[in-house]
Amino acid sequence: MGIKFTHNGKYFIFSLLDQTMKVCYLDSMKLSLNLYGHNLPILGFDISSDDSLLVSCSADKNIKLWGLDFGDIHKSIFAHQDSITAVQFIKDTHYFMSCSKDKTVKFFDGDTYDEIFVFDNFFGEVWGLMTSSIGDFFVTVCADKCIRIWRQTKE
Question: What's the pTM value of the predicted model, to 2 decimals?
Fold first, then answer.
């Protein structure tokens, strides 16, 4: 379903339709970790900038935060009312965002596991999101055929 490299270039991580993720060494291609925990296919995942956390989302409506050192689940969050289509960390933080078919985007703190804010101004399922390289704005794509740009303000 997806593949990503860690920022330090040591591992690559991929997700499969059997609800698992695999962490492999890039240089030898050997398996380092098997990550089990979701009940339905993993639809998205991301790696924190410091390579310490992995966040995954699934059709099972859950977000899971994993430690990349041992592959342990730090927290499982029932985050949305429908399938979660994408998650992404904000650069140089453990803050992350998720989007869902329930027509919302949510903003979380990956250290305290708190939900910080909910963006619910959508008229269709939210299929994807991407944060800017410095985290000052994010872009969403939605089933209502709109691309929205959300900029950070002083408020």
Answer: 0.91
